[in-house]
Amino acid sequence: MKKNAFKRITAGLFTGAVNGLFGGGGGMIAVPLLKNMCGYEEKRAHATAILVILPVCAVSAVTYIINGYFSASVIIPAALGSVAGGLLGAMLLNKLPEFIVNIVFIAVMLAAGIRMII
Fold first, then answer.
1. Could you tell me which residues come within 8 angstroms of residue 25 by beta carbon, excluding any fewer than 6 positions away?
2. Which of 20, 21, 43, 46 is most buried, by CB atoms within 10 Å?
3. Closest Cα partner for 12 from 50, 52, 45?
4. Residue 24 lies in domain
């Protein structure tokens, strides 16, 4: 049990560090860590990553707000879009086969990596 707890804490540490450093993206790290390091199956890793990211994002957001790194004119529309997208994504995760979820996740990660390079 101690080995599993250490793996989960380590996965959480990496997830939080990435999310705090980049203002998001912790889920992109959390999913592979939960799958490969902690042994979660695909859909459970995605769902768990979302629940793990919630408090991480809240802490990061408060830190950014305190330090003045935010745009008030963007917060409400972006939050509304994010909530709608989150609901849609959660419904799709429940309906799509694991293979498709994995392919979509890989495509999104690849697109994000290419976008960062360009």
1. 18, 19, 112
2. 46
3. 52
4. 2-117
Question: Could you give the angle at which helices 72-95 and 42-66 cross, rounded to 10 degrees?
Answer: 170
Distance CA 52, CA 27 (A): 8
Q: Are 56 and 15 in contact (CB under 8 A)?
A: yes
Alpha helices in 23-118 (DSSP H): 26-32, 42-66, 72-95, 98-117
What separation, in Å, do the N-terminal and C-terminal C-alpha atoms of the chain show?
A: 44
Q: Computed over its alpha carbons, how large is the radius of gyration of the chain?
A: 15
> Distance (Å, rounded) from C-alpha 32 to C-alpha 48?
11
Distance, in Å, from the CA atom of 61 to the CA atom of 58, rounded to the nearest integer, reads 5
Q: Residue 103: its pLDDT value, please? A: 92
- What is the total count of domains within the chain? 1
0.70 exceeded by pTM = no
